[in-house]
Amino acid sequence: MDEDSLQGRADARHDLGRNLTRGMLDSLGRAIVVGRFEGRPFPTEAEIAKAHGVSRSVTREAVKMLTAKGLVSARPRQGTVVEPSSNWNLFDPDVLRWLMERKFSVDLLRHFNQLRIAIEPEAAALAARFHEPADLATIRAGLHRMEAAEDGNDDPLDADIAFHVAILRASKNPFYAQFQTVVATALQTSIRFTNRIKGRSANIADHAAVADAIAARDVDGARTAMRRIIGDVLELIASRPEVEA
Amino acid sequence: MDEDSLQGRADARHDLGRNLTRGMLDSLGRAIVVGRFEGRPFPTEAEIAKAHGVSRSVTREAVKMLTAKGLVSARPRQGTVVEPSSNWNLFDPDVLRWLMERKFSVDLLRHFNQLRIAIEPEAAALAARFHEPADLATIRAGLHRMEAAEDGNDDPLDADIAFHVAILRASKNPFYAQFQTVVATALQTSIRFTNRIKGRSANIADHAAVADAIAARDVDGARTAMRRIIGDVLELIASRPEVEA
DNA sequence: TGTTGCATATAGTATGATAAATCGTATACG
DNA sequence: CGTATACGATTTATCATACTATATGCAACA
What we know:
Two copies of one chain form a homodimer. By secondary structure, chain A is mainly alpha-helical. Chain A contains twelve helices and two strands; from the N terminus they run ααααββαααααααα.
C-alpha cells in the first residue's frame, strides 16, 4: 500500500492502531473468530512478529491476552493452538465484538435473545424488589429518551439500550449487570434486522409497563411485562428464518 | 532452595507455580479481588518484578492478562490502576475462583443463585426443545451418579454438577453453556453452606422430574421442574441470613 | 521390540535500552 | 495576577537479544 511494499518489507503496522499490542490482539482475535486457523496451525510468535513488523514482546502480550479470554492456549515446543469455541469467554466484550464483526448470523441473534428472555425478565423482577430511587430515575430517563426518539430528537437505538441497561443495573446483582454488553450488542444487531419490519411505536407502551411495575414494586408484573418485550423480538426472529446480510 | 537465598535476594518465586506468568497472574488477581490496593496505588512494573524476584516480562504479561479480564487498566505515566469491580469480567473462571477464594460471602451465594434461577429453568426448557439423544444420555448419567452417591458410591457434589452442566449443554445455546463455571462454583460453594441442613435425598426426585420432562420434550414442565430445584436452594439461603464462615 | 537418550523447535524468562505519553511544575507572556 | 507554553520526570510501551525450559520425534541401543 505504501513505500514499505516496495522493499517487500513485512511491516503491517498500519493495520494496528496506535497501541500495537491492542491492535495485534484485535487482529488475531478477529482472525481466530472467523476461523482463519481452522486447518492451519496457529503461527509461532516469531512468525507473527515478522508478519506484522512488530517485536516479539508485542505478539507475546497479545497472545497472552487471547489466552486470558480463552481463545488460545500455548505450550513450549507444541506451540499455540486455538481452543474449541466452547472454551471462549463469550461474555468478554472483545470476543462478543469479534463475533459480530464477522458475517451476520441469524443463529447468533437467536442465541442472544434466548439468553435475554431468561435474564431480562428476572432482572426486572429483581429490580422491582431491590431498586433504589436513583435507579428508577435512570429507568424513566431511558423511557423519556425513547419518547424523544419518536419525534426524532434522540437516537432510538441508544435510548432503547439505555433503558434495558438501567434495569439490569437496578437488579443490584453484579452478575446481571454483566449482561450490559450482551444486551447492547444484541440490540445493535437486531436493529439491522428488525429495522423496517414494523414501527417501534407500540413498543413504548410495553416499556412503560415494565417501568411502572418496577416503580410499584410489582415483582411478577415487571417480569411478565419484560417477557412480553423480548418475546416479541424472539417471535420476529423465528418467523424469518432466512435473512439478507 | 538454593544459593540465591543466601544473598538475601528478593526471590518470592516459590509462591508462584511452575509457570511464573501464570503464578503472577494468580497472585495479583487474588490481591486485587481481596481489595489489597483499595487505598494504595497499584505497584509499578518494576516494583512488582523486584518484589517477586521475576523479570519485567513476566509481570507485564501477567498485567496484560489482568487487563484482558477487566481487572486493571494501564496508561503511560499514570500507571496501572484497578478498575471498578463493575468492569471485572465476572464470568471469567479465574475471576470467579478468586472471588470464591476470598472470605466466604452469603451475598455472593445469593447472587449466584439469583442468576441460576434465571438461567437454568430456561436452559431446561431449551433442552426440552433442542436436545439430541446423546444429551439425554449424559443427563441421565448424571442422575444415575446422584443415585449412586446416595449409597456412597460416588461423590454427590460432582454428580450434582454433572447433571446441571449436562442440561446447560443440551440447550444447544453456547451462551448457556458458558454458565458451567458459574454453576459449578455456585454448587461447590453452597455445599459448604447447605451441607448438613437437610438430606439431599428428596432432591433426586426433583432432578428426575426435570430429566423426564426434557425427555418428553415438555418445555414448560422442564422449566417449572428446574425452577423448583433452584427455588429450594434460594429459600434455604434467604432463611438463613447469618452464617458461620 | 521396546527403551533410552539426544537433537530440535517453540514458548518462557531475563535484561537493558529507547520511545511515547502524560502529569506536574516552572517559566514566560499578556 | 492569570494564563499559556515549555520543560522535566515518571511510567508504560516497544524493541532487541540472549538464554532457559519443555516437549516432540527420531535414532541409537539393549
